[in-house]
Amino acid sequence: MEKIQSIRGTKDILPDSINLWHYIFDKFNQVSNKFNYKEIRTPIFEKTEVFHRSIGEGTDIVNKEMYTFTDKGGESITLRPEATAAVVRSIVQNSILNESPTARLWYFGPFFRYERPQKGRLRQFHQYGAELIGSPNPEADIEIILLANDLVKSIGIEDYQLLINSLGNANSRKMYRDKLVDFLNENRDSLSADSQARLEINPLRILDSKDENDIELLANAPVILESLDEESKIHFDFVINTLDKLNIKYEINNRLVRGLDYYSHTVFEFRSNHLGSQDSFGGGGRYDNLIENLGGKSTPAIGFAFGIERLILILETLNKLTANADSIDYYILTQNSQYIPFAFEIAEIIRSNDKSAIVEIMRRSIKAQMREANKLNAKFAIIIGESEFENQSITIKDLTNSTQETIDLSKFLTSLT
Ligand code: AMP
Question: Helices 308-317 and 18-34 sit at what angle, rounded to 10 degrees?
Fold first, then answer.
């Protein structure tokens, strides 16, 4: 029979690399707890409308990348391409903000985008992210940036860039958009085809262009920070000045717009030189209108997400990851299949004492079983032969120093507790 391959752009996480995932997840969990963020889990699919109404029609995600299908009941369903919209849908539906005006939430899970797969870019990838809901003030921006920054540091990544920009409030953005469109229209013929198309639907995204000619042209484009109105400027200055006081390193990047429509005011992104062309490993921003757009009371919020696969790529280049040091406590060898029930009995008692145990299941020779015990890095081998079985005893071999003794089962069991 022919082998079946996994879907392009998806990856199995195999047992020998799962410890990296646990490492990141455990560290992130500890840090999130210190900030008093609570986990939220939403379904991996939502009504398509959740993403159309939030991410925005002119964006790559909505136009090209969503896994959308009609289910058997005729409903348009989408595998979530990101979390924020789904989290907001959940907050509104479950009236989470009725009890307290603020919510601190984190999430972890798979996300789906139909992108061209390459290093660090998958069609199913994983994000760990957080949302701080309820405050319009720049101190919320600071808290969320500190959380994001602490998460990165907690896994030993020190060498990265934190880029920050402000998209201002709706008024500033409109003023800027007009100026930018005027400038781009004057230079329309020099723009790449992609950017020309974006000029009609989502001109701010042109600032994100990777096309070299576009980049050269954009060097002379109007700068958003110069279009900020007073309110937007005060907000951004507070963020920047507080980061300075806290000695958080950042770079202001005028061209950082991020891909989604719902952002306003502060946006930020984490980049690494260890990733090649997909150099962003996390990012986020303020989304003050999203909750209202999804049917809730007007509530400001800010959040971010990290891509776990990209964090793992960085950790791999830094050689920070320790080899899988898994081991088991006891490997139970049986000389004859007759003793297998006895072996399982012992294994269950070992496990009930919070130690790990495996019973041989291949009915191999004792020599081959011993080889397996060593291969699995077992600390002890327990050998059950005829005399052990008859006398209710076990032979136990310490595989670290190769000493061996035969002891009463009852004595062994008391030694476990
Ligand atoms: P975004 O939701 O686009 O702001 O992405 C946040 C982070 O998720 C990015 O910085 C990446 O680390 C990660 N990410 C986004 N899209 C992908 C993808 N297709 N494959 C792998 N990681 C991704």
Answer: 110
- CA of residue 309 to ligand 1 center, whole Å: 9
The verdict on the CB of residue 310 being under 6 Å from ligand 1 is yes
pTM, to two decimals: 0.92
- Which tens digit of pLDDT belongs to each residue from 60-93? 888 889 999 999 999 999 999 999 999 999 999 9
**Could you give the C-alpha distances from 285 to 17, 163, 213, 331, in angstroms and in order?**
31, 11, 28, 51
Handedness of CA 6, 18, 306, 276 (dihedral sign): negative
- 250 with 376, same domain: the answer is no
For residues 384 and 403, give the distance between their C-alpha atoms in angstroms, rounded to a whole number: 16
Domain-ending residue, one of 317, 350, 385: 317
Query: Is the same domain home to 38 and 129?
Result: yes
Domain range holding 262? 18-169+229-317
For residues 125 and 82, is the Cβ–Cβ distance under 8 A?
A: no
Measure Cα distances from 276 to 128, 228, 271, 367 in Å: 21, 33, 10, 49
Ligand 1 atom closest to the Cα of residue 122 is 20
Ligand 1 atom nearest to CA at 258: 4
List pLDDT tens digits, range 368-399: 999 999 999 999 999 999 999 999 999 999 99
**Closest atom of ligand 1 relative to the 307 alpha carbon:** 12
Pocket residue to mutate for ligand 1, from 123, 151, 309, most atoms within 8 A of Cβ: 309
Ligand 1 contact via 330 beta carbon (within 6 Å)? no
| DSSP letter string, 212-228 | HHHHHHHTTS--GGGG-
Q: Return phi, psi of residue 291, to 5°.
A: -65, -40
Could you tell me if 207 and 221 are in contact, meaning their C-beta atoms sit under 8 angstroms apart?
Answer: yes
